[in-house]
Design goal:
Layout lengths: L3 H4 L4 E2 L1 H7 L2 H13 L5 H17 L4 E5 L11 E3 L1 E3 L5 E3 L3 H5 E2 L19 E5 L5 E4 L2 E10 L8 H21 L8 E15 H5 L2 H6 L24 H16 L4 E6 L5 E6 L2 E2 H21 L2 E4 L13 E9 L12 H20 L1 H7 L3 H6 L12 E2 L2 H12 L3 E2 L5 E2 L22 E3 L4 E3 L8 H23 L5 H16 L11 H10 L8 H4 L6 H10 L4 H55 L6 H30 L6 H29 L10 H5 L4
Parallel strand pairs: 2-9, 16-19
Antiparallel strand pairs: 1-8, 2-3, 4-5, 6-7, 7-9, 8-9, 10-12, 10-13, 10-14, 10-15, 11-12, 15-20, 17-18, 19-20
Helix pairs in contact: 3-4, 6-15, 9-10, 11-15, 11-16, 12-15, 14-16, 20-21, 20-22, 21-22
The structure holds adenosine-5'-diphosphate (ADP) and magnesium ion.
The site of magnesium ion has 3 residues, from loops.
Length: about 700
Amino acid sequence: MESVSDYFGSMVFDDRVMRSTLSAEVYDSLRKTIDEGSALDIGVANAVAEAMKDWAVSKGATHFTHWFQPLTGITAEKHDSFISKAPDGSVIMEFSGKELIKGEPDASSFPSGGLRATFEARGYTAWDPTSYAFIKGKTLCIPTAFCSYGGPALDKKTPLLRSMEVLSKQALRILKLFGNTTTKRVVSSVGPEQEYFLVTREMYEKRPDLRFSGRTLFGAKPPKGQELDDHYFGAIKPGVLSFMEDLNEELWKLGIFAKTEHNEVAPAQHELAPIYTTTNVTTDHNQLTMEMMQKVAARHGLVCLLHEKPFAGVNGSGKHNNWSIATDDGQNLLSPGETPYQNAQFLLFLCAVIKAVDDYQDLLRISVATAGNDHRLGANEAPPAVISIFLGDELNAVLEAIETDTPYMGSKRKVMKLGAEVLPKFNRDTTDRNRTSPFAYTGNKFEFRMLGSSNSIACANIMLNSAVAESLRIYADRLEGSDDFETDLHNLIKKTIHNHKRIIFNGNGYDDSWIREATEKRGLLNYRTTADCMPHLLDEKNVTMLTSLGVFSEEELRSRRDIMLENYCKTVIIEANTMVSMARTMIAPAIESYAADVAKAASAKKALVADIPCSYETGLVKTLSSLLEEICNKTEKLESVLPKLHEAKDVVEESAMVRDQLIGAMGELRIPCDKAELITDKAYWPFPTYADLLFGVK
Ligand code: ADP
Ligand code: MG
């Protein structure tokens, strides 16, 4: 068998392949474009395209595609073959620099939030040379950005690249103040931990709710769930293990450093984490990972559920976004250093993050908002919708000491004065891990835990990069030209701690008392749903920050708000329609048949023994019939909400109606259905139960 190092990255047109297939001149020019963003000339593009095509064809590829990330949150591709007609009528394989650099998919059906009139439906895709091309199946995939002709971005990659750029620019200004003149770029990196569920395809097919909405809309609590904690890190079942092995192999071929895999808390729940890399690349990789999870699951007779909350009352799935910033020569800016100067610099970057998270709590909440994630946040196994930062006792004590000008007694009993002593080392100590915090410092990075499992990580990182860039911009404006750098620096750090300490919380984020304290005493935001938070994308402070940095234009923001709210409404409406249909055509008939058969059995018994009481049957039939009545009423009630939504004057109003009326009506219908499930003969129940689904994979 081939070893991993033999096939790792074999499907990627990476640096190794570039070096071996391009002339030195072309390679250097392309490298400059990748590393420094300099423009690519068409001669170079032609040479790269030719080499890429030859390499891809040698690996069996017949097609190429511009692979992009429209605002649907998944990836899109339109395949073209390399074939071309030679003058003699035979076929040749061709791929030009022009085709590599720019594409024009007919993009009229992608959401644009009004950015594009249908008569100019075409958007164009532009090559992102910082993310390597790769082969998927028989297709050479070229990572691209997707824009409309007028210029506005129609995708998630473009603003992500812009946010990385502004973060680098502002961070460089700060580094310069600390005497660093060698760093050319500052790069944000992410390692996303991806959670998911596996269920058997056979059971999945029997549940319209899973097929249409990715989550169960009905289902009583199983007798055994996750209460024994016997699944977390437990031995992996053979069927799952063989899925994981196959998945790893596919990901490794694509150059994705899939590293860690284990069972999660809920039965049938698992996690995969890669080794972190540049945010832009890791975003592409995470999209590919989610796609591969679904493809590989299908090969194993399984379905991978990426929904944030596939099962009510069972842990949902998130995606932990481990984020850090580092210089191009590998210095992690969120890690305390060895010298007082490095530590002062670390504290300034730390403060920039604290200020950013406090000032833009709403943007971070918005960046993870989907109908699916609304079910997960605050549902006692995931962070609440309130954002706060966990720093750990040690770092917290350091900040307190700075704020109050008191000496800090660190673990080594060393008095610390800012810029004068060495900071304690913050070990990634497991005793100091707080898993209930939405935003936790873990020694050299922050772990943003609010993302839902199906989210593209682009949005969260766009907001994080931008908000931190904004703090750094304000700091740099303040410190550049300062006459007394050390004093001004000290005061700036002190002031930030004082002004923003309300966002720091080291206690239990799942506790109800925290939500009260956060909202009532500290004035932190608590946007429970997508409908609550999304309109705030257009709040003046947010628009000002994002447009002045050049990450979004105002029209891009407006379109994104609309698309996100439309998506929220559509998702819930599909769920509501699915519920109505399942209740009418599956659940009610099942209860009816069962009740009728029970009644029949009672009559048969009575025919045999006239004075037999049959109180069991009578009681059961009565209960079933009254549940059936209730189901019928609640279905009608749910159905009656749907046409009202058309009356909304805009999508903001519609989303509020969905939140206030539709979701409640769905919850009401579910109750009698789940009750009926518990007293209906299993043979009659029309689809697999929670117990079947959660314990079905062998
Ligand atoms: P956990 O204890 O939360 O499971 P891990 O040690 O498994 O944490 O790391 C989770 C993720 O964090 C991995 O993807 C890892 O590569 C990533 N990570 C580690 N260091 C950094 C860093 N400096 N920047 C970004 N991500 C990082
Ligand atoms: Mg984690």
